[in-house]
């Protein structure tokens, strides 16, 4: 196994939520490639096949769990079966377009579901993870560059990511005396399924092609090109590693310079 110096997680147990695809899957895979054993969680049954595939590829122990993270009872059932955790990655989230001009019941339901998953789900899973951690535990929350900025028509998603950053900062204060570090990764545009859906809807609303939107995203960054999940995932390993031993309560942008500061 070719390890990046400082990123050896051999003997450590890592849980990643929302790990069936996208950023969560890439984060889980890279932790396993660098020696960690995994618990991975998703709402869909496909997580069990994902776990088998990752175990086969990496040679590590990988256990998959199905769980709606907005269901506190089910969250507690899952976490009660895990003896201990060294690293918890609260990555599961939902992105949806919620323009304020949409007065439908469906729009309200979408708004509530995004907040429920991204805010309440992050709280419930983090709360369940903390008792499983020792003095050197690490928690990493997937926020977004939109956690400090804004775009039209994404009120639920952007509000939830602002909340994620605030929650991370409070947890860093509360858990610091226990030796647990808490940080957030703020990805920019990453070509995952949910992001592609948003990009498609933005293109349709403006009557332009998806390629036009991608070009605009690239032009807004200091470094051109739109990221893939693998471009972001090593940021999580850095924050969980001894290389970041003095970093807590921070948001780290992984956005090719789209937002500075």
From TrEMBL:
Keywords: Oxidoreductase
Family the entry assigns: Belongs to the short-chain dehydrogenases/reductases (SDR) family.
Keyword flag Oxidoreductase: yes
Organism the protein comes from: Ruegeria haliotis
The protein's name in its UniProt record: SDR family oxidoreductase
Top-level taxonomic group: Bacteria
């Amino acid at each position: 196994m070719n390890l990046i110096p400082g990123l050896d997680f051999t003997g450590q147990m890592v849980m990643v939520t929302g790990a069936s695809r996208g950023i969560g899957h890439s984060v889980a895979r890279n932790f396993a490639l660098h020696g960690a054993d995994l618990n991975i969680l998703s709402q869909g049954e496909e997580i069990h096949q994902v776990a088998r595939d990752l175990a086969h590829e990496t040679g590590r122990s990988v256990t998959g769990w199905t769980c709606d993270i907005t269901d506190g009872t089910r969250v507690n059932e899952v976490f009660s079966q895990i003896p201990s955790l060294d690293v918890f990655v609260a990555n599961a989230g939902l992105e949806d377009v919620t323009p304020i001009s949409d007065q439908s019941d469906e729009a309200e339901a979408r708004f509530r579901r995004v907040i429920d998953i991204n805010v309440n789900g992050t709280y419930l899973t983090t709360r369940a993870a903390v008792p499983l951690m020792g003095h050197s535990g690490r928690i990493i929350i997937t926020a977004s560059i939109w956690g400090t900025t804004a775009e039209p028509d994404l009120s639920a998603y952007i509000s939830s990511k602002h909340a994620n950053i605030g929650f991370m900062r409070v947890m860093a204060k509360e858990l610091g005396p226990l030796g647990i570090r808490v940080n957030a990764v703020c990805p920019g545009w990453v070509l995952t399924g949910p992001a592609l859906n948003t990009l498609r809807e933005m293109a349709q609303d403006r009557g332009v092609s998806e390629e036009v939107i991608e070009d605009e995203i690239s032009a807004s960054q200091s470094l051109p090109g739109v990221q893939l999940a693998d471009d972001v995932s090593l940021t999580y390993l850095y924050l969980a590693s001894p290389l970041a031993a003095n970093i807590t309560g921070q948001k780290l942008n992984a956005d090719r310079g789209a937002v500075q500061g």
